[in-house]
Amino acid sequence: xxxxxxxxxxxxxxxxxxxxxxxxxxxxxxxxxxxxxxxxxxxxxxxxxxxxxxxxxxxxxxxxxxxxxxxxxxxxxxxxxxxxxxxxxxxxxxxxxxxxxxxxxxxxxxxxxxxxxxxxxxxxxxxxxxxxxxxxxxxxxxxxxxxxxxxxxxxxxxxxxxxxxxxxxxxxxxxxxxxxxxxxxxxxxxxxxxxxxxxxxxxxxxxxxxxxx
Length: 213
Description:
The chain has about 210 residues and is an all-alpha fold.
């Protein structure tokens, strides 16, 4: 959840910058532009939690989700000053949504599924905390990488001008997307090594896993 939070918050931040500052979207249009990702997350998470996770367990799902999310970040590195939302952003959003759906539902269910009922609230809070910590650290790191990339671009292209600054901003966004891809792929390696194979039995057969919202 920490890795997913770091990558996801990076997507929201820098892709919002790109949509508004480069493509000229309004705040409302930018919000609506993320709907394909949200729809993919909800659809994937619902199918995975009800039909796939009980049969396979989390190990094949979460690493696959982080790989897909990493690939979606790589797709976003193709954006430029003259690229369009439909061709360069929507495919990455859909793939990222599927990846996040494969991460969120299995991770939450696995983190809370075997705790005692009296500890379920603490476990759920810990999942939320890790997501927020990951988002905070990821946003800080990616912002630094993005700013450094933009500054280097301006320096190497003859100094500030309107065209150079616009291109430098996009270069900074794509730099952040590359680093976000690396974070997701690192998460894929870690989860493939740490998660156990097989399905998970609930500690209390009459209880349901507590999902962090």
